[in-house]
Amino acid sequence: MTANAKNLPLTESRNAFSGRSIQDYFIIFLALTCTFIAFSPFGYAILTSLKSEWKSGEIIPFIQFEPNLLNWQQEFGSGGAETMKALRNSTLISLGATIVATTLGTLAGYGLARFKYGIGNRNLVSWFLSQRFLPPVATLIPFVLMFRDLKLLDTLPGMVIVNATFTLPFAVLIMRDYFADLPPEMREAALVDGATEFTTFLRIALPLARPALVASTLICFAFAWNEFLFASVLANRNWKPYPMLVAGSDTVRGIDFGFVTTRMLIAVTVPVILSLMVQRFIVRGLTFGAVKG
Amino acid sequence: MTNNRAKYLFLMPGVIWILAFTLFPLIYSFGLSLTNYRLGRNPKYIGFENYAEILGIGDEKIDKKAVSTASFSAFLFLGSTATTLFFGTFVAWVFNHSLPFLRQMRAIVTMPLFAAPIAVGWLGVVIFNEQSGPINNVLEGIGLGRVNWFIEPMPARLAVMFTDVWQWTPFVFIIILAAMQSIPDDLYESARLDTKSNWQLFKSITFPMIAPALGTVMLLRMVESLKIIDIPYSLTRGGPGSVTQTYVYYAYETGLVGSFQLGEAAALAYLLVIVAIVISSIYFYRVRERFE
After folding, report:
1. Closest CB from B126, B268, B283 relative to A48
2. Each residue's pLDDT tens digit in chain A (293 positions)?
3. Which end of chain A is more exposed for a tag (fewer CB within 10 A), N or C?
4. Where do the structural domains in chain A lie, given as residue ranges?
């Protein structure tokens, strides 16, 4: 974890609440308020998903309304086939994209961290990051035609290609940063022993980079899981991922709040849990290395 | 020699991937923007006519919908960027104290960032609901009265902006917090000899020290704000009318829904690519030393 405990002037004591000033309590109050604002919409959605009959203002479970799992049972029970298929699609697409992006990203990240290239390493980094700066519609339009000609519309490989493309920048940057921080002597020692560049990478660098590999995998997976725009055009039948079901929640039965919030929560759970596991890498991953976390 | 070949082998797969799936589509897209291509019809080269139609050059009248959607995108570009920077910095300041439970709370505060934007839009539908949503209930409770979030233009624009701000404030927060935590303690030690005021400390030390990170985050937020489409797609469907339709949403609708006017949509998208290139050039210029 990053050093969370850089002391600001306000605190001297570290043990629980002993010797805390009014100001400390005020800061904790502010932090609680921020946490409440960030969490309460999720909390409200959870409560709403536990109501089968939706009434305004009823928010306290057991006292104001009797919570039940009808919405959840319906999503996985009677509507289960559609849900399970979309979740399966999302899982396979995200998994495929993550494998491709992390593999390419690890190789490129290692190259950028260890060697100097003629055209300039920073130009190469810009090359890899450019995708994140482009408005997605600009590449989505030609993708429709390319995929039509290549027979990739509504297929798993097609969706893997799309999602790998826009998660690749995260993988390259996370891996590059991590490899750059490893001591170069290790690699040199291995090379002196007669190992090739590739064996050195495989036997020495890669095992050491396991934490970054985990982070890159989880971040790529989370972002691929959330992708909606490309899927809405390129995979709208057999390979529909879960966000497409979420997007179409109203057309099925009008707006049924219990139903909508249930789907929303299913969509949100996976990436949010993954994000909690990689807090340490998030800063670098998201700023493309511009800010060290 | 082996060394030289090896170093290109590491790089090549990724470079080729980007070439095939980012650069090639981008060039393809530019080619398309010079045609009148509609799905199911034969494309014809028409030069820069699509661009002339959008921008109102020559005999053409300016594309009013492009202008109105661009103005909503500009509204988000300025409003959402400024608001997330302000709140994100404030939240970072709050969490940059060593107090109990802040670490656990910090993880919760970052949650909105990782939720699928399309789902966050739906969350907004529930929260902003005019009859029964908690926001209107609270507003009525404190005597401000109900707001017609989805019927009136300005409230609808604000609903989209607030939802986006809720999702992206954590992004600014975690980055600025990291920047604040890298400020050496002794800077504060010496400054505290002169002043006890938190605001003075923030102004004279914290702010100047986080300014570079703020600049970086601002550019990233600007780029992201130009891409907003998922949230209005599920929150307002661009309505009422098209007041909450963003520019990318309009390009999407032109090219990929209904009549599939791919040529015109590609031209719309390309104008935005130019803006994105300008912003990203500034970004890469700023971070250039880091990657050598």
Report:
1. B126
2. 334 444 444 444 445 556 678 888 999 999 999 999 999 999 999 998 888 776 656 667 777 777 888 888 888 877 788 889 999 999 999 999 999 999 999 999 999 998 889 888 888 888 888 888 888 889 999 999 999 999 999 999 999 999 999 899 989 988 988 898 888 787 777 777 778 888 888 888 898 888 889 888 988 999 999 999 999 999 988 999 999 988 887 755 567 888 889 999 999 998 988 888 777 666 666 665 555 54
3. N
4. 1-68, 73-287
The reply to whether residue A117 touches residue B22, judged by beta carbons under 8 angstroms, is no
Sign of the CA dihedral running A151, A155, A160, A166? positive
Dist. CA A144–CA B269, nearest whole Å: 14
B148, with CB counted inside 10 A (0-12, 13-18, 19+), is: exposed
> Per the CB < 8 Å rule, is B262 touching A145?
yes
Are A54 and A65 in contact by the 8 Å Cβ rule? The answer is: no
Query: Is residue B151 in a domain?
Result: yes
B184-210 b/e (C-beta count within 10 Å ≥ 16 → b): eeeebeeeeeeeeeeeebeeebbeeeb
What CATH number is associated with residue B228? 1.10.3720.10
Structure tokens at A135: 């408005």
User: Buried (b) or exposed (e) across B95-108, using 16+ Cβ within 10 A?
Assistant: bbbbbeebeebbeb
Residue B114 belongs to some domain of the structure: yes
How far apart (Å, rounded) are the C-alpha atoms in residues B206 and A162?
41
Count Cβ atoms within 10 A of the Cβ of residue B137 and give its class: 0-12 exposed, 13-18 middle, 19 or more buried.
Answer: middle
- When scoring A133, A160, A228 by the number of chain B Cβ atoms within 10 A, the one with the most, hence best to mutate, is A133
Complex-level ipTM = 0.88
Give a yes or no: residue B104 inside a domain: yes
* B contacts of A1 (beta carbons < 8 Å): 103
Domain A73-287 -> CATH class: mainly alpha
Contacts with A11 from chain B: Cβ below 8 Å: 97-99
- Min CA distance, A202 vs chain B (Å)? 12
